[in-house]
Amino acid sequence: MKTVRDIDVRGKRVLVRVDFNVPLDREKGEVLSDSRIRAAIPTIRHLQEQGARVILCSHLGRPKGRDPSFSLAPVAKRLSQLIGQEVKITSCCVGREVEEAVQTLAPGQVILLENTRFHGEEEANDPNYARALASVADVFVNDAFAAAHRAHASTAGVAAYLPAVAGLLMEREVRFLTQALDPERPFALVLGGAKVSTKVGVIRRLLPKCDRLLIGGAMANTFLKAEGYNIGASAVEDDYLDEAHRIMEEARDYKVQLLLPADVVVAEEPKAGARSACVSVRDVPKGWYIVDIGDMTAEAYVRALVGARTVVWNGPMGVAEVEAFAAGSRRIAQAIAQLRDATTIAGGGETEAIIEALGLTPMFTHVSTGGGATLEFLEGKVLPGIAALMDP
Fold this sequence. Notes:
- With 392 residues, the chain is an alpha/beta fold.
- It is 32% helix and 17% strand.
- The chain is built from 13 helices and 17 strands.
- The strands form 4 sheets. Strands 5-6-4-1-7-8 form a 6-stranded parallel sheet. A 6-stranded parallel sheet has the order 11-10-9-15-16-17, sandwiched between helices. A 3-stranded antiparallel sheet has the order 13-12-14.
- The model has no long low-confidence stretch (mean pLDDT 96).
């Protein structure tokens, strides 16, 4: 795909789809994590240096109409601080106000359009809305990999009306995730999170290329139950028990070392302050919840990562948003970060948050901004936001 480096943008109006879907403190109107904003800065800087007039657009959350609590105003404020230039925000995405704001832009200046999802036409990929978005620009740059799996007006629709290329973040995401599809071996795949169902496609695609498959999080419950263990009141996908059996059988056929938890942290409730204990998977109390991998399992997983040349990690090992149940996920993050001779790729919002909180992001080869997009890319699905871009 063509990138922003391949086109002349000097003096042109460039509409950039970024992913500023960031967590906010809505009462204070402050950004809680600016990692996705910072990830877009290389593309913004490149366009500024080339003398482009930069028009940014993004969604934020799932508002129902024009909900002020989902305004991108706090994002505009934080971006202004990061790039050392005031970034004004329009009150809408399309219409006269946007047209007038773009007309006053000088080369190198940046504006941010208000939340694209304030319009129902965004998620419907309405062609009239997409055309209106495109009408204020000469070029479209998609730098929102995390939203590339959505066929929305601002991710794919506008590409029908403007020359469309990838931003520098999109380019980086595609490069490293493509590398994961043809990994240097030994290759370790670490999967956690809530559901087997969202990971089956990735497992099927990568299992033949895999040497070690480490499974944690709530998705491990389905595998444990398929193996005959009692999992108490823990979340499980009963419809995927047979699928879990097939995956384990295929792992044996491919001679893949598949690791499941041998011990787990359990709690009376999966929330802060609940009574908890570390037990063997054979001894999960009735009515209790599995909330993390245990110490013995964490050590076994760390040993399995030693010597890997490629590691892909998606999904926490437990209920990592609760401090008391985050130890397993943190141990995995630290172990992967210490693999100096490996290509280490992590993805998913919760996974990204764990790595960032530990200050380990620079120690990973690549931390993807995508969650669902990362999984769909690794699964081999066509991402509409990428498919719409110009070929090289």
